From TrEMBL:
One of its GO terms (molecular function) is N-acetylmuramoyl-L-alanine amidase activity. Gene3D superfamilies: PGBD-like superfamily/PGBD, Zn-dependent exopeptidases. The keyword Hydrolase applies. It comes from the Bacteria. The keyword Mitochondrion does not apply. This is N-acetylmuramoyl-L-alanine amidase.
Length: 271
């Protein structure tokens, strides 16, 4: 598929200010989103504008760039909110984009734990009104609410991943997923002579991969979790794995949601 993504605002016409600067964090989220989409083989244009000197120039430049591409499936505008509040909201021009907008919204709420403020219809936002392809405007939390701001600024990578997965409607396995597998997996999959050379990577592998592992997830991380829980390690996070995770969470006084996030991961793989 073909996508256009841009980060809102620029240094001449900065966005909202609070505990963090909107245009700066917008760009970090934008970069992560594009990277994950490209890793999944998608065509993505970065239509961020760094030169517009007024808000109108900035918006017009963005729309001009978006409309130069042919056959785009979707344009996505990344912003942060302000005005005192908390949570995530996604704006769309009309209900046609309910599916993809809802997925993005739910995904971001899930990885940040922030409130779902809902899907909003808006036919006056310049970008939503003027781009040829359908466009969505994502407000990734509030710059002037400390908890939102700190959380979002520290999670630009997982938010980008969540947006990319929402746009595609499927999980994105990163290419370097293999470098996060456990020592055991290295030992089994590498010829004897290279085993030693990979030791240095082993330290990294205990760290949380940076996104939620849950029903529908697949891959080496799922296998690792399954082995830790003594479930058949088929790499597919299904009903049985979920039940085992819930059980484990119950026994360890973790939030019982059947999802492996940073806390459950840390408990499972504590050194
Ligand atoms: Zn903005």
């Amino acid at each position: 598929m073909k996508f256009s993504i841009h980060a809102g605002h620029n240094s001449f016409v900065p966005g909202a200010r609070g505990y963090i600067s909107e245009e700066f964090v917008n760009r970090k989220i934008k970069v992560a989103t594009i990277r994950y989409l490209r890793a999944a083989g998608q065509t993505v244009y970065d239509d961020t504008d760094d030169y517009g000197r007024t808000q109108n120039e900035n918006l017009a430049a963005i729309v001009h760039k978006v409309n130069k591409h042919r056959d785009l499936d979707l344009a996505v505008s990344i912003h942060l909110n302000a005005g005192g509040g908390t949570g995530i909201e996604v704006y769309q021009y009309d209900e046609k984009t309910n599916g993809v907008a809802g997925r993005i919204l739910n995904n971001i709420c899930e990885v940040t734990g922030l409130t779902n403020r809902g899907l909003k219809k808006n036919q006056s936002f310049y970008v939503l009104r003027n781009t040829k392809p359908s466009a969505l405007l994502i407000e990734c939390g509030f710059v002037d609410t400390k908890t939102d701001a700190m959380l979002v600024a520290s999670k630009t990578e997982v938010i980008g991943h969540a947006i990319a997965e929402g746009m595609l409607g499927k999980n994105i396995q990163t290419r370097n997923a293999a470098s996060r597998t456990s020592t055991h997996e290295f030992d089994q999959s590498l010829p004897a002579e290279v085993k030693g050379t990979k030791r240095s990577v082993v330290k990294l592998v205990s760290s949380y991969p940076g996104y939620l592992i849950k029903r529908g997830s697949r891959g080496e991380e799922v296998k690792r979790i399954q082995r830790a829980l003594s479930v058949t390690a088929d790499g597919i996070f299904g009903v049985k794995t979920e039940a085992a995770v819930r059980n484990y969470q119950k026994r360890h006084q973790l939030t019982v949601d059947g999802v492996v996030g940073p806390k459950t991961w840390a408990q499972l793989f504590a050194a």
